[in-house]
Amino acid sequence: MALDFRSVRYGGDYNPEHWPVEKLDEDVELMRQAGVNLVSVGIFGWATAEPTPGAFDFSFYRTVLDRLHAGGIGVCLATMTASPPPWLSHRHPEMLPQRIDGVTLSPGARQQYCPSCPVFRDAVGSLVEALAAELGDHPAVQLWHLHNEYGCHLKGCWCDVSAAAFRTWLQRRYGSIQELNRAWTTTFWSQGYSDFAEILPPRVAPTFPNNAQQLDFARFSSDELQDLMRVEVDILRRVTPNVPLTTNFAAVTPSLDLWKWAPDLDVVSFDNYPDPADPSSFRIAAMDYDIVRSLRPDRPWLLMEQAPSAVNWRTRNAPKPAGKMRTSSWQAVAHGSDSVMFFQWRASPGGAEKFHSAMVGHTGPDSRVFREITALGSELAAHQEPTGLRTRCDTALLLDWDSWWAGELDSHPTGDLKLRDQMLDWHTALGASAVPTDAVHPGGDLSRFRLLIAPSLYLITQRSADNLADWVAAGGTLVLSYFSGVADERDRIHPGGAPGPLRDLVGATVQEWWPLQPGEQVRVSLDGLPDNNNGADGARTSTAADPAAAAGGYAAEVFSEDLVLRGAEVIGRYVDGGLAGGPAVLRNRVGNGTVYYLSCRLDPAGTRAVLDAARTDAGVRPLLSWLPDGVEAVRRGDGADALLFVINHTSEPVAVALPEPMSDLLTDASGPTDTVRLNGYGVAMLPMPN
User: Fold this and answer.
1) What is the pLDDT, as a whole number, of residue 230?
2) Number of Cβ within a 10 Å radius of residue 354
3) Chain-centroid distance, C-alpha 652
């Protein structure tokens, strides 16, 4: 079921077990003052609710829910399973997780469990069953908060219990030991198995473990954590069928295959902590938000956590300057969130996160942060226009977790190819060009997209390759980068080498990979592009001068490839280095569509140049014709109700030209204007122009 919020939900994690019960009334009153309408309760409450085995006592949390409900504040009730109490591992040390090097992790922090351990799963089931029966029908409860940040600290377990579960998983996947041996190429290094009982997780070995084994273990680890979540899902669907379910994903990382996880949830939630000291962190947040929104494109998502100011876990924890918290909050709403929530409501008096900022800090409500929190709560309550709006873009990043896992394994041409960095390269270029972007699996429904960007699609199945080929032939424009089409789903090299089943799309083959050394750069000319600076509508979307004109080419680093042409047009060549004069960037017409192939990691200006050419072919128009550096343009919604957000992520004032006179819905401006003027960290929300 989908949530049907009538306004943006506003609040944060509430951990009243840290404080005397007398604080409840004060907290509720301050929440009302701040405009809070939803809080997450009980995330780390297991030891409070079950202080000894089977002795469930939810009376404290019932009191908390009663007080919140009386104050008009809804609750996202956590299942309390993210941090097992000490008594559980004390009685059952076999539930503690083991690292890849054989070290057993101890209790005393959080997420200290083996996802496969039957004892732990039984304890989770007992707690959730009792909690749902006791509090699931409480009128304050608006949704369930499953666990907390699956895969954040614990991405997998290599213990003997996990080994047994891994063998069972492999038997289901391959059916026979002979088929597994073929899949894993176990003829190499005499690794052939005669029985599933001989198989272990890929633990620390004298040298490189089997790559296919490592890939399968990554798949297994994601699946096993998901199966652990389903213990809770199954109980809650049965006991409280009318209460929607969510869990807060901690990041877009190689831990969990989020395409597989999202269908188990009624709404996707996400935690985001951009670094205030990093001026590019808003670009990282924008990419993550677009990916998270794409996991369930049929409904909005929820920002479950962000920091009001500083965090506690970086080496140096910078606070958010005045106004930046509001900016980052509206950014999440612009990218599709129906909530703005924080960790946490009141700062902890002790523990590992006592220096983490909170909506109410150690000094109480008389603070800059709480005044900003209150002002934002009032502003969000006054502007319901974005709530419920869904966004569908005609441009998308291709993302496949199997390829991500396999592409970053060891014993490759270089260990410096990181998919997240490459995705960010392209998403930053799209954002700087004001092009709204989704994410999609290469085997998914591509029919609504005009332009697809595929950073290093190392692993690709024949099915996904055929899906892309059909889409391009029908008129799509695909941008594909280096180290793509290398291996199949078993991490075996495709016959004939890269780009494997994408060969006809690329119009070339890779003769040899040429990774560049640390600090090494080569130059690439893009003389074959029609116009390196102008977009599909002839409008510039950057203030930066073209560095290629002065430097004789765009810079490339990290990776390059020696290509053999098979029909593609060369639009860029290596100017220097070991591949000087050879093809670097290609364009290939396939059916009614076009494929661009980059054999190297171009600098931002070069990436933008190729992107502008590709979106010209695709007929993709930017939201605005020009954006200053550090300013973001985001569309939320489709059709007549769509909104255009212009967000200044810098501390300096900016002016941005609009395509037609419009009025900022967030201000009391007297009338429409053709230029939006934003102070430092300013935000404008405008009706989407025709």
Assistant:
1) 98
2) 13
3) 29
The residues of the chain scoring below 50 in pLDDT are 532-536, 538-545, 547-550
CA distance 302 to 144: 13
Q: Quick one: how many helices (H) and strands (E) in the chain? A: 18, 26
Q: How confident is the model at residue 542, as a pLDDT?
A: 44
pLDDT at 424: 98
SS in 3 state form for 500-531? HHHHHHHCEEEEEECCCCCCCEEEEECCCCCC
CA atoms within 13 A on the CB side of 223: 15
Q: Which among 305, 489, 561, 632 is annotated as catalytic?
A: 305
Q: What is the pLDDT of residue 668?
A: 72
CA 205 to chain centroid, in Å, comes to 32
Phi, psi of 249 (to 5 degrees): -75, 135
| Cβ partners under 8 Å of residue 154, min gap 6 | 97, 111, 112, 113, 115, 225
> Quick one: tokens of 522?
């080569």
pLDDT of residue 541: 45
Any idea what DSSP says for residue 75?
E
The Cα–Cα gap between 178 and 465 comes to 27
Which DSSP letter does residue 686 get? E
Structure tokens at 295: 């996991």
Residue 436 is given by DSSP the state -
State residue 544's pLDDT score.
42
First-residue to last-residue Cα distance in the chain: 33
Judge contact between 46 and 80, C-beta under 8 A.
yes
Sequence-distant (6+) residues with CB within 8 A of 670 are none
User: Is the entire prediction scored with pTM above 0.90?
Assistant: yes
Residue 6: per-residue pLDDT: 75
* Three-state secondary structure call for residue 454: strand
pLDDT at 538: 47
User: Is 305 a residue of the active site?
Assistant: yes
Residue 569 among the catalytic residues? no
DSSP-derived 3-state class of residue 606: helix
Handedness of CA 680, 12, 301, 290 (dihedral sign): positive
Query: Helix, strand, or coil here: 408?
Result: coil
**Contact between 398 and 479 (Cβ < 8 Å):** no
Phi, psi (degrees; rounded to nearest 5) at 338: -105, 15
Q: What is the pLDDT of residue 552?
A: 76
Domains and CATH numbers, the chain: 395-618 (3.40.50.880), 631-687 (2.60.40.1180)
Q: Sort residue 479 into left (φ over 0), alpha (ψ -120 to 50) or beta.
A: beta
Of residues 492, 468, 486, 558, the one with CA closest to residue 522: 558
